[in-house]
Automatic annotation (TrEMBL):
Species name: Mycobacterium deserti
A Pfam family of this chain: MFS_1
Gene3D superfamilies: MFS general substrate transporter like domains
PANTHER family linked to this entry: MULTIDRUG EFFLUX PROTEIN YFMO
Record protein name field: MFS transporter
SUPFAM superfamilies, per the entry: MFS general substrate transporter (SSF103473)
Segments passing through the bilayer: 7-25, 45-66, 73-90, 102-120, 132-153, 159-181, 202-223, 235-254, 261-283, 289-310, 322-342, 354-374
Length: 401
């Protein structure tokens, strides 16, 4: 699995840097609120604008990549992230930061969907092995992000934004020189393709499951810094523990559980465990020790879920992997964009427990949707070799032209 072409490693490195951007911002949510006199719900819009734009923009990633090629799409996405993060760091109002985070979301959409498809298409071995490599990059990036964000946030809340911009510039240089030129697709993707892909009940069911799961995930990520009421460094260390747990289970634990119990049974138990964790946070919201422990424990379940859901998406429908990724990401990100804002509003207007109860209910509903989708996911545990899939897709494209 680890013997891969340099193109795969180039994109994987860029993924590490890209996913650092998620954790870098989390430790500074409360400092931003304090310095800019903003409420929890206003600050949570940093996640909402980011995910809403990213979700909608996922619909155009395939269109862009099929016309200008994956490498140019990756570089365009990185350039947009550099601009969005840098401008957010120079902003003086919460509205400006929210707006530049939306631009950042556009860049992430162009980069992430194309990066996953590029790794899966370029890697040697099976789909599962390629996705584990992608999740390893994701896990490493998320693990380092909160730690760096906490350290930079101690200096200034602007520091993590400038840090992301600088690291993205490094990722852009690496991608330029290490990723070979990639040709345009034989058939240009249209805006309608992701919606056609969602006609497959397996893919649609997995996408809705991910939407509901992300509702709980982003409630935890965006709201918990407020009841914790700690400094940027302390919150960064807690979320560093969360991300290390996430990285470990996504790369080491998830494949073993999948091999022994199967993908869907493992996901169902995992979603129920995540539901229970959020319920404990709802009951013990005022206990900082319990909250901190639950954050780290949740990382264990999130890592398993990320790996197995991503692999399931790649196999759930007989469509091109880039199209499947775009369709799935559109549903989960655009829908889950509501979660951070709603969590802030519920915390302000109801009580600090309610956001976690809502998040737990959403994840439980996700388990129910996945159980109903199970009959449409038969055969996803078959070991598919990437070379064989690529050959099949080439035949399909040839027959369509």
């Amino acid at each position: 699995m680890w013997r891969q072409p340099k193109a795969v490693w180039a994109v994987a490195f860029a993924c590490v840097v890209a996913f650092m951007g998620i954790g870098l911002v989390d430790p500074i949510l409360k400092p931003i609120a304090e310095n800019l006199d903003a409420s929890a719900s206003q600050v949570s819009l940093l996640f909402t604008s980011y995910m809403a734009v990213m979700g909608v923009a996922m619909l155009i990633t395939g269109v862009v990549a099929s016309r200008i090629g994956p490498k140019r799409t990756l570089l365009l996405g990185l350039a947009v992230i550099i601009a969005g993060a840098g401008l957010a760091g120079m902003s003086d109002t919460i509205s400006e930061i929210v707006g530049w985070r939306a631009l950042w979301g556009l860049g992430n959409a162009l980069f992430i969907a194309t990066a996953l498809a590029t790794i899966v298409n370029s890697a040697r071995g099976s789909v599962a092995q390629a996705i584990i490599l992608y999740e390893a990059a994701l896990g490493l990036g998320i693990a380092v992000g909160p730690l760096v964000g906490g350290l930079l946030g101690e200096i200034s809340w602007r520091g993590p934004f400038f840090g992301v911009s600088a690291l993205m510039a490094l990722a852009l240089v690496v991608t330029v020189f290490l990723l070979p030129s990639t040709p345009r697709a034989a058939r240009a993707t249209t805006l309608a393709d992701p919606f056609r892909a969602l006609r497959h009940r397996g893919l649609l069911g997995v996408a809705v499951t991910a939407l509901l799961y992300n509702f709980g995930f982003f409630t935890l990520l965006a709201f918990t810094p407020f009841p914790l009421d700690m400094g940027a460094r302390e919150i960064g260390l807690i979320f560093f523990g969360w991300s290390v747990a996430l990285a470990f289970t996504s790369v080491v634990v998830a494949p073993r559980l999948q091999l022994r119990f199967g993908t869907v049974p493992t996901l169902l138990v995992n979603l129920l465990a995540m539901t229970a964790t959020l319920a404990v946070m709802a009951v013990e919201t005022q206990n900082k020790g319990v909250l901190a422990t639950c954050i780290v424990v949740a990382g264990l379940f999130i890592g398993i879920n990320n790996t197995l859901i991503t692999e399931t998406v790649m196999k759930a429908a007989p469509v091109e992997r880039g199209v499947a990724s775009a369709a799935y990401s559109f549903v989960r990100f655009s829908g889950a964009a509501l979660a951070p804002w709603l969590a802030g509003v519920l915390g302000e207007q109801v009580n600090m427990h309610m956001p976690y109860w809502v998040g737990a209910t959403a994840v439980l509903l996700g388990a129910g949707v996945l159980a109903l989708t199970w009959p449409h996911l038969r055969g996803i545990d078959a070991d598919e070799e990437l070379d064989e899939i690529a050959e099949a897709e080439a035949i399909t494209v040839g027959s369509d032209s």
